[in-house]
């Protein structure tokens, strides 16, 4: 039951916002009593913490699956971008923005979790791109990881509209890739930009 509550709450938080969803809403949606929820979670903040941890785990499991498919480095980044677009397509307000605004302490914990995992994914991608001749060999990998991380998470935390955030994140991905790309990489980037649509 605890896992079912986390799953339903995560879904509702992403679609309708961390602030607007109440324990009553979750209980009503699941056809259970609020008392049942409080048996597992003594307050909404703990439920949000566990839900964000579950969303984090799910995102990184999907990213691992994408990486195992052995796309080239540029294609891999676009596949990850598509995954985020699909996952947050029903959100009007950016979930990260809401978390930062209404639950700053939980937001800080989420960001601490994200930094290591994201930086590891970015590093693997850059090394892979260099090996494949898509990214230049002489780039400072640590700096490029930091540039990309700061740009992406600054946007996520400061733009209210999820749709607007998605558009800017695609531009950040293009900016990041162009900064590193070899002529071969630029051709690959142009191909993916032509095929990528934001709905």
TrEMBL record:
Q: Check the record and name the InterPro entries matching this protein.
A: Homeodomain-like_sf (IPR009057), HTH-type_Tx_Regulator (IPR050624), HTH_TetR (IPR001647)
Q: Which residues form the HTH tetR-type domain?
A: 1-59
Please tell me whether the keyword DNA-binding is annotated for this protein: yes
Portion annotated as DNA-binding: 22-41
Q: Does the record bear Phosphoprotein in its keywords?
A: no
> What does the UniProt keyword field contain?
DNA-binding
UniProt-listed Pfam families: TetR_N
Q: What protein am I looking at?
A: TetR/AcrR family transcriptional regulator
Organism, as annotated: Flavobacterium fructosi
């Amino acid at each position: 039951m605890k896992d079912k509550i986390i799953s339903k709450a995560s879904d509702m938080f992403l679609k309708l916002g961390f602030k607007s969803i109440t324990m009553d809403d979750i209980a009503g949606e699941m056809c259970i009593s609020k008392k049942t929820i409080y048996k597992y979670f003594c307050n909404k903040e703990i439920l949000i913490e566990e839900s964000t941890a579950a969303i984090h785990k799910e995102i990184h499991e999907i990213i691992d699956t994408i990486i195992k498919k052995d796309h080239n480095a540029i294609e891999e980044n676009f596949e990850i971008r598509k995954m985020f677009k699909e996952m947050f397509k029903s959100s009007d307000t950016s979930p990260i923005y809401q978390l930062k605004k209404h639950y700053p302490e939980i937001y800080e914990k989420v960001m601490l979790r994200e930094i290591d995992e994201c930086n590891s994914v970015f590093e693997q991608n850059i090394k892979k791109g260099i090996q494949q001749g898509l990214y230049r060999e002489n780039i400072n990998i640590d700096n490029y990881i930091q540039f990309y991380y700061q740009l992406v998470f600054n946007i996520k935390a400061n733009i209210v509209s999820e749709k607007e955030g998605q558009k800017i994140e695609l531009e950040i991905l293009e900016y990041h890739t162009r900064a590193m790309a070899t002529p071969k990489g630029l051709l690959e980037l142009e191909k993916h930009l032509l095929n990528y649509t934001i709905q």
